[in-house]
Design goal:
The complex is a heterodimer of chains A (170) and B (386).
Chain A lengths: L1 H21 L3 H21 L3 H26 L11 H23 L13 H13 L3 H22 L10
Helix pairs in contact in A: 1-2, 2-3
Chain B lengths: L9 H34 L11 H4 L4 H8 L2 H12 L10 H17 L7 E4 L5 E4 L7 H9 L3 H10 L3 H32 L10 H8 L10 H4 L1 H14 L11 H4 L9 H26 L11 H9 L8 H27 L7 H30 L2
Antiparallel strand pairs in B: 1-2
Helix pairs in contact in B: 1-13, 1-15, 4-13, 5-7, 5-13, 7-8, 8-11, 8-16, 11-13, 11-16, 13-15
Classes of the chains: A mainly alpha (170), B mainly alpha (386).
Chain lengths: 170, 386
Amino acid sequence: MAQFLFLLFAIFTVLCAVGVVVNKNAVNASICLILCLVGVAGLFVQLDAYLLAFVLLLVYAGAVAALFLFIVMLLDVQGKETFGLRGIRTIAGFVAFALLLAGIGSVALKGQIVSSPPVSVAGGAQLKLYAYQLFTTYLLPVQIIGFLLLISMLGVIVLSKKHEITEDAP
Amino acid sequence: MFDFYFEIPLVIRLILQGLAVIMVIFPIAGACSMAERKVAAWIQDRPGPNRAVVPWVAWIPFFGKFLQRLGVFHVMADGGKMLFKEDSLPGHVNKFYFVLAPIVAMIPALTTVVAVPFGAYFDGAGKLIPLGLAPFDIGMLAVFAVSSLGVYSAILAGWASNSKYPFLGSVRASAQLISYELSMTLAVLPVFLWVNAPGTEGTMGFARVVEFQSQSGFLGGMWFGFLMPISAFIFLVALFAETNRQPFDTVESESDLVGSFHTEYGAFKWGLFFVAEYSHMIVGSGVFMLLFGGGWNPLPWVSLATAVDFLGTFLPFAHAPLFVGILSIAIFMGKVLAMIFFFMWVRWTLPRFRYDQVMKIGWQKLLPLSIANLLFYAIAIALIQK
């Protein structure tokens, strides 16, 4: 049963991911992206990574993708421009494809999955483990990403704010 | 007695349990629409809906008249109308997403129930076992995550309707939902800081929160609503905004937006939006009561265990798990319904905020307040639980 569900969610996720790329209508593509994220969350649930699943839903499916969809609808983006394989795009596409193949190949040939997964702990303890790791081992990456977000936020404020030259300033 | 039930395969059992919960939530959501009209009538000092009656009930001498005056049959009449009314599909809409939107509205509204425990019983060893569909350890996160998907129904409905007012309504709805989610999340953090005391196993589940509110002693038995009033207040305000209730219903302000994202909808599709809104209210009230209102404990400083012990002095079956389970569910449901009455009460007490005021309250008032609140409790809890 678990195997079947995992396969079902995996196929669903891959199909939705293909849908994101293939769809010409930007709204359909964003909906596919959301469904894809939900599918990935489902896969995480199957792997007993409940926290990851729900954080993924909360952050990406709930907020980020909503903004995508929102902007697509507000700007009324019509995917009229058909994307052909021309010039630099072709090269970039092939390079990306080669990298992907190399990645999959290296995992398939050389990679080894540790047969016994980490001791399955109760969800709560897992939560504590995550938090502990975030605040000890991975503290620096968390801080750096926090600063990056801060910088981008400041950038948005600077860019979007209208600079009015105040002439009547004392 | 119920052994046969546990012989059914797990998947079917879970589906049955899920259906059972939906079959409770759905009619309550329907009845809430009736209660809304009746409460409005009481507050405005008029009789309210009091005409519809089934003939053979009207023949019952006193009781029939009472039910008619109470307006209970209007629920059936409304439901029947929604089912049998012509379900028109306007010509200018995007048909696929137009039909999809009400369905998308129902999914998060009914899925969040999964993570909310609604009662408890004591097993043989006197250990409290919460009753719920899925005893998640990350209950709060699950509720936030799934309910954040509710924004899609608003966006899709407004966009697919392909007309101005619904689109404006959906823009407002999604902006409001995203703005108030932040302060709501920050408001519950002190609760979980307090509950995850050092040395305990970390959890985001509701059962532990209720357990913490049913300890003995002055501080132990105190509901978190008294211990963290500002958190409770922020959560409550954000809950009103998230469920699009007055005074935050700029989304469907009839005077300037006709309806809201559901202006173009009629019949049962409109009904689904309605039921979804009330389901949100029910689940939201439940979460509020679990976090700040003591869950299934009958009174502050009186836990369920104490109440059952007290009842045990004159009821021989008071300690039976079945009785305790039903009692706790009844207490919890009573609290949730009281909360829903509060929603309706506020609706007829506070005037609607303007849209710019809604945004201002969310970002400039509630968010700084919730951050300050979090900082204060983080320091206080660190000092107390050192």
